[in-house]
Amino acid sequence: MCTACSRRPPPRRSNGCEAAGERFSELELNTYASLGPAQVTDDARGAARQLAERLKDRYGCELSEDEVLESPHTFIGTVDALVQKCLMLRERFGLSYIFPIAEPEAFAPIVERLAGR
User: Fold this and answer.
1) 41-63: buried (b, 16+ CB within 10 Å) or exposed (e) per residue?
2) What would the mean pLDDT of 41-46 be, rounded to a whole number?
């Protein structure tokens, strides 16, 4: 569970990606909010702190608020922050698909802002 943060970012191309060879550009890479549903909030640090406390209690995994917010498996923040995070994940990890596990209405503004980008 403690691998949920991006402390040590993986290389852009892992062994699996290298095995794809020339077909790599055809792959659709994804992530999902495995640490809990996306939260559109003005209190991202507070929500991240609560999640970090739950992870520590449940799994003994200690993460800072920043590590929770930076994880490719959490989506917590304002609409602007979540749009920027989605763009960063695409750039940093080559992700083309994100499943936020959120109420559609809650994540709709983010999807609208990302459309066509």
Assistant:
1) beebeebbebbbeebeeeeebeb
2) 98
